[in-house]
Each structure stands twice: as C-alpha cells, then as structure tokens.
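Can you give me the bound-state structure? Components:
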Amino acid sequence: MLKTVIPFGPQHPVFPEPIHLTLTVEDEIIKQALPALGFVHRGLETLVDKSDFHQMVQVVERVCGICSMIHAMCYCQAIEEIMAIQVPQRARYLRVIWSELSRIHSHLLWLGLFADSFGFENLFMQFWKIREKVMDIHEATTGNRVIVSVNAVGGVRRDMSSEQLQWIQSQLANVKQEVARLGPTLLEDYTIKKRTVGKGIVSRDKAYELGLVGPTLRASGIAQDVRMLGYAAFNELDFEPVLGTDGDCYARSKVRFQEVFQSIDLIGQAIRKIPGGEVQVTVKGRPEGETVTRVEQPRGELLYYIKADGSKNLDRLRIRTPTFANIPALVTMLPGHWLSDVPVIVLSIDPCISCTER
Amino acid sequence: MLKMTANILRTLFSKKPTRLYPIEVRTPFEIARGKLVNEIENCNFCSICALKCPSQCISVDKKAATWTCDPFACVYCGICVEACPFKCLHQEQAQRRPAYERQILLKKGLPH
Amino acid sequence: MLKEMVPVSVDNLVKETAGLKIAGYRFVTLSCAAIDKDHFDILYHFDLGLDLKHLRLTVSGDTKIPSISPVYFAAFLVENEIQDLFGIFFEGLVIDYRGTLFLEKMIHTPFCKYTVQASQSKTNGSQPLSGSPDLKEES
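Here's the bound-state model for the whole set.
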C-alpha cells in the first residue's frame, strides 16, 4: 500500500488554535501521527526577568484566555506557599466560585466547539448562547469579561455582596436548566453517537501510563482530580470526580457535560457556606524558595514550578499546562482511525495550544 | 435529529439572544472596568501607576507635569486605579470604542 | 517546600525512573532551571495518588542526558521542549525533533542565557542569526 503524508493544520476549520499534525496515511487509515508545536509561542515564562512577582499575576493570566482565573490562582497559591501567607477564608471561597465559573464557561465553549467539529452548527450556537450568561456573571462580579483579573498575591481583589451571590445562584439555575435541555441531543442523538462512540479509545492503563490529565483521564475511569487536594476551599466542599468508563470521544464529552452540573453544584455549596470577613491581606517582603503547586483546570491538572531567590523578580517560573500532558495521547490515539475522524479525536482532548506553548 | 426539534421551536418563538451591536448597546455593569480616566487636577505625578502597571502602558513626567497612557497597550486590569494614592484615577463603566488609528492619551497638568 | 526530593545522577536516572514506574507512579513533567553559567537543575515530577515525588538532576550544559522516554513515553514532548529552550540534549529519545519542536529550521535557545550562542547573537546586532548555516540555505 502506498503511504501518503498529509500535513494537518496549523490552519484548519475545526481547530480554534494552530497545531500541526503530520499524518502518515495508508488509503484513508492513519498509520502515524506526529504533532508539531510552536505557532503561538510567546515566551511568557521569560517575562519573570522584566516583571516583578506582583505584576506576573497579570502576565500568567494571559497564558490562556479561557482559564485565566485558574492560572492566576495557581500562581498566587504558589507565591503564598513560599511566603507563608494565610489567605482569608472568604477569599478562598470566592476563588472557588470564580474558578468553577470559568470551568463552566470553558466546558460550554468546548461542548460547542466539539459539536462544530462534527458539523452540528445548531448545537454549537446553543451552547455558546448559554455560555454568554456565564460571561455576564464574570463581568458583573469582576468587571472584566474574559480575563477577569481578580487574583492578587494574598487574596482576591473584588468582593461580592450577598445580593450578587443570590443573583449568581438564580442565573446558574437558569444555565443548569438550559444545559440539561441540550443533554438528550448531545448524548443520545444517533448521528453524534455514530461520530463519537468508539473513536479515539484510550484504555485505563494506557491513560495512566501516558500521564494524561483532567477529563481525558477521568473518561478512562481513573478518579484523579487535583481538586481533591483541597486547595482554596475545596476541602470544605463535597464532591466526587465525574468518571467515564470507555475512554472514547463519547465518554470524554459526557464527562465534560456532567462536570458543568458538578461545578454549578459546587458554586451553590460555596455560596451557602461562604464566611464573612476580609478578602485580601497586605503582602510584605519578597519570596525566597522553590515550590510546585497544582490546581485543576477545566482541561486537567495545571502545574506551576516557581523558584525565587529573594529578589523582586522570580528566578524561574515553569508552567506545565494540561494540554501539554494530553498531546502524547494524540500520538497513540490517532493511528488506526479514518482521516475524517481526526478533527473529532483531536478536539476531544480539548486542545488549548496557546496554553501549551506559553 | 428529533431531539433537537423542541429546542429549535423554543428558540424560534423566544427573544433574540443577540443584539445589533453598534446601534443597540447593553447597559454596562456597575463595576465594569472600562475606559481609564485621570483627573489631572488632582494628580501629583508620583508615577506609582506607571511603576505598578503590568503592561507598562503609563508614563509620567514629573518635571513637565504630563501623564501619558497608551490605551492600546492597557489591559484594563485596574491595578493603577487601586494603587493611586491620590485617587485621581478611575475607570468608567463603558468600554473604549474601536478606533481607526492608534491614539495616545496625553494629559498635561500644572507642574508642582 | 518540596517534600520527597531525591537527588539523582546521570548514571542512575533511568534506573530510578524505572523503579518509580514499577511502584505505580504517574509521570507528571520535567522542570528545568538554570543555576549558573553552565549548570542546570532538572526536576522530574511524579505523582501517586495526588502525592508528588521529585527527582533532582544537576548537570552541566554539555552533558548528554539519558532520556526517560523509553520508560515513560509521555516524557518525549517535554524533553524535546527542554532541548529547544535550554540547549541541553537528551540521548535515546523515542521521538527526537532535534531542537525543532518549536521552530522548523534552526536551533535557538532563549532560556539558555549564558552560552556562546547567546553572546554571539548580541555582538551580531541586527542580524543575530546570520551565522547559522541552516538559515543561509533557505535564503
């Protein structure tokens, strides 16, 4: 059989961001897939030389547009750990609320993009219509729509009034109702199942061995969720990781769909339990030491390694984003599938390339 | 396909979720971080805003008593507003409109 | 700050890693940090039931480090990234991009501030990479 090499991407209608795959195909069956990165590399990690450690909060927010709040939270937690700062309890709860909001909007965005990847434009628009409500909550509570910029070393920069918290709950009840209405379409539709069930299977053992993270790992049946570490106020909230069993594209979309409801539930719990008090403590001094912090992003485990030498600027900041850990899965998932399934399988890991390259 | 029908009918008879943007603008939220404004009469040209700004979009000249901001580099984080000791900086609710060419905000006050 | 830090050397790195794999650890990532002129710290992070374990390898810039990608396949991507950003090279990579993971043609290592490459690019001024044979080929 004649081998053909097809360059897939970096510009492709289904990819929201540029990633290149060199696909070796025989007939229309993929034999080998090699990813290539570097189309949106910005070198944000080197900015530690120019910005001081307070200003870096705004820099790391721009690593990823979708989960900017979680990036900043992870960075602030790392600095707080090095400097042994006690963050007020109310700030921890507010962090939970904002981070879960960004998880909801990220998952809704992805569900839309995923529907788009198999050509279901209508479902795509429905999900994005719901997402707009979450964006409005962001703007009403933080002042910004996407890059919310609420985190600071030592707490959060905005507080929420009790009316706002009530309003969030009523808005989210609305979101929950509307998302639930789309459930039967996404999970039971014949055409969608035809495109997703049994595609891009990663077995339980393989997923663990490849070091996959987030919904991609949980869809294979491994209960790994970094939120169980209990950072912010997650130790006081009650939740179980959402699990899938089959490890295919369908399982991954189902896990993300159910995590929307889990996040809405977590926000409800946080609003009921939130204590009063301060939201920010003043920070004096400079960080010295090294640490590794992990938080759960919508796409999976995010890891920050920070090394500080006691000066204004950090010595080294390393960001390992979840998509970076999920790309090896593509190398093993794609071979054996039809060329026409590549968009669906690639999107099923929720690739965030600007995250990956920083 | 039938599973979507109920949704399609619902959206058909409900209000439009979009608006005709430049003609119809949503009222901004109360704490929205929009246009950055400096009340130059209260400004002391201490340049704390310029030092704190994460995107280095503000520059202050104390001798000439000028305060310059590049709104195209500004990231609307509101750090300068919080840091200002004279409370002369604030952010309006409305966003800046798209512009045809690059603008620089230059404000000149009285030298101290 | 970092609990469970195990110092390793180039010789026993792969052996230690294989031991961790048998013990059921999940590969997380590698972090690399420059210590001084030509010494680097490479941290290997592993995870078991949400507990992290780190291996610390301190090497000089010209050492060929044995790759752990034959043990943990997922390590190939981050090892290639370190090759790109720091100019440290790994031996025995499963998929080796030879420093071209991010860029197609040339090797340019932004995080490796102290090497000869970096100082050359400064003296050359406006044409920092004119000496690169790969670039000449293209123009």
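A couple of observations. The two ends of chain A are 40 Å apart (CA to CA). Chain A touches chain B at residues 51, 54-55, 57-59, 62, 122-123, 126, 129, 132, 136, 139-144, 147, 149, 157-158, 181-182, 184-185, 188-191 (CB under 8 Å).
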